[in-house]
Specification:
Bound molecules: zinc ion
Largest sheet: 7 strands, mixed
Distance between the termini: 62 Å
Oligomer: single chain
Length: 332
């Protein structure tokens, strides 16, 4: 059976029947929080990145809760990012647990070759038409190859969709909360109004609404920041006592934080409009202006952030764009 809170470890009882386990990651975001939910089916929410350190932290964290990895009956993946999904396969093989996730996680988790080729070509084309120079394209390529180190092919056994009960965890309901990732789900327990929000809402950093390719044969890429804001508004409309995040501290007063995040999007959008006052620019040029210190090191993240805000400005008619020689230029 589970233990109560244990000091000086990477795991703690954070709400009735819910343990939070902190797992180190090699990424800039820092450690990731995964959750262990007690019940007839011991459930792990997310697994951590694929690294020896992360595996050790997961193993000792679970032991400190009074369990072994082999006791896990099912794993719910909140979204496909590698800091959450990298250890899925190792946990599955060590426990025979079934893995559940949103359908849009499947091609990423299964490392579907056709999809990954399509994904690669989509970003190559997007960066090119956004004015990213060849040097930048090479950096992105290297970054993508490096990410392969932290992933391992696994499988999704059960698909989860909005407002569905989590199988074998009758108190918990799935909320589809896309934006940070197209595959992102959160888990809600109505009895005490707790949301496991993963990377949807994080207290100390604004969650990046990462650009993703179109899914399910759609023609256009999803407008991820616009979608993210809508998912935030959906959560603001619901009563939540606190949110257990994928990174950092518990979020209380979620409506206040959401209002702040929504406002910050417009501050950033207005910065972009200022940069366009002296003439048209590409999304890449705007990225270098918006993030002069970090754009070289974090091109995919900073580019995503910039393009998301340009999408937001575009749909309300506050910027226009034209294409010349295959390059897209934004203007006021
Ligand atoms: Zn994430």
């Amino acid at each position: 059976m589970g233990k109560t809170q244990n000091q000086n470890t990477n795991s703690k009882l954070i709400a009735p029947g819910i343990y939070q386990i902190s797992i180190p990651t090699p990424f800039a975001v820092g450690p990731v929080n995964v959750y262990l939910i007690e019940g007839d089916y011991l459930t792990l929410v997310d697994a951590g990145p694929k690294s020896p350190e992360a595996w050790e932290a997961l193993e000792t964290g679970i032991q400190n809760c009074g369990y072994e990895i082999s006791d896990i009956k099912q794993i719910v993946l909140t979204h496909h990012h590698l800091d959450h999904s990298g250890l899925l396969e190792r946990v599955r093989q060590s426990s025979n647990a079934i893995i559940m996730a949103h359908p849009l996680s499947v091609p990423y988790v299964e490392l579907d070759k056709n999809f990954l080729d399509f994904h690669h070509d989509f970003f190559h084309q997007l960066y090119k038409e956004s004015g990213v120079p060849d040097e930048g394209l090479r950096i992105v390529e290297k970054h993508h190859n490096k990410m392969g180190v932290f992933s391992e092919q696994s499988q999704i056994d059960l698909l989860l969709k909005h407002e569905q009960k989590v199988p074998n965890l009758p108190e918990w309901e799935v909320w589809y909360t896309p934006g940070h990732s197209q595959s992102h789900i959160s888990l809600y327990r109505a009895s005490d109004r707790i949301l496991i929000g993963a990377d949807h809402i994080i207290k100390h950093i604004s969650s990046n609404a990462l650009i993703e390719p179109p899914m399910n044969n759609a023609t256009n890429r999803p407008l991820t920041l616009v979608q993210y804001r809508t998912s935030l508004e959906m959560c603001a409309s619901r009563d939540i006592d606190f949110i257990l995040p994928g990174h950092g501290e518990v979020v209380y007063n979620h409506r206040e934080l959401i209002t702040y995040r929504l406002k910050r999007n417009w501050d950033r959008s207005n910065d972009l409009r200022q940069f366009l006052r002296d003439g048209k620019k590409t999304a890449y040029e705007l990225t270098t202006l918006l993030f002069p210190e970090v754009y070289r090191k974090e091109l995919p993240l900073t580019f995503s952030e910039t393009l998301g805000h340009l999408d937001l400005l575009s749909i309300v008619g506050q910027v226009e764009h034209t294409t010349k020689d295959g390059i897209i230029y934004y203007s006021l």
